[in-house]
Amino acid sequence: MHIHHIETRPSILNHFIAQVRDCSVQTDRMRFRRNLERIAEILGYEMSKYLEYREQTVTTPLGEKKVPMLARDMVICSILRAGLPFHNGLLNYFDHAENAFISAYRHHTGTKDEFEILVEYLSAPSLENKTLLLADPMLATGQSFVSVYESLKKLGTPAEVHILAVIGARPGIALLEKHFPPETHLWIAAIDDTLNDKGYIVPGLGDAGDLAYGNKLQH
After folding, report:
1. What's 152-174 look like in SS3?
2. Confidence bin at 199 (pLDDT 50/70/90)
3. Does residue 169 contact residue 89 with C-beta atoms inside 8 Å?
4. Interstrand relation of 201-202 and 185-192 (parallel, antiparallel or unpaired)
């Protein structure tokens, strides 16, 4: 897997990451959602430098100009619900893309902190020979991304797969490397070292879905 850790080269991205982590800023849900959107835009721009382009002719009022344009159809697939503002950020830049939405949530299997990932909803076009973007702000254990990818396989074989996340934990990244094709690209803003006993990223930022849309009664 090709890992692109964008935070390592300081930029305005670091300000947005600091704000989504900061407890004193997180209370503003609209700002939290907007920062997820802005981070997605930056990751999408960096990713765009690695995509395939073909020269096309554009007609202007005064003539014609050849410009490189994206060569392959694209599908943006976000994991509900925290993935929605992140999805919007990618769609701001890749407004021509098709869209897919999938649910993936932790179902606790016992009295301890053990859980499995359940996928119960999927709306998506064909993925055959397209560029697939898998988007979710948090890459914790990595199980959600793996389960989602397995569910999407029935929709065709993408020409390339790009995973995008705001914050990831090293154990989760290691799991992705085992289950995704070796040519997969991971675009990630920040990487933290560990997970706690509940499988949450430390220091991370908390529950991105709750911070974006409010606390839920069921997990």
Report:
1. HHHHCCCCEEEEEEEEEEHHHHH
2. confident
3. no
4. unpaired
DSSP-derived letter for residue 110 is S
Cα four-point dihedral sign 86, 131, 190, 178: positive
Q: List the alpha helices (DSSP H) in the chain.
A: 13-21, 23-26, 29-48, 83-93, 143-152, 170-179, 208-213
Task: Give the 3-state secondary structure of residue 69.
Answer: strand
pTM, whole model, 2 decimals?
0.92
Give Cβ neighbours of residue 103 (< 8 Å, ≥ 6 apart): 79, 80, 119, 120, 121, 122
Rounded Cα distance between 105 and 80, Å, is: 8
The pLDDT confidence band at residue 208, using thresholds 50, 70 and 90, is very high
DSSP alpha helices (H): ranges in 69-134?
83-93
Strand (E) or helix (H) holding 60: strand 53-60
Per-residue pLDDT, 82 = 87
For residues 52-76, average pLDDT:
97
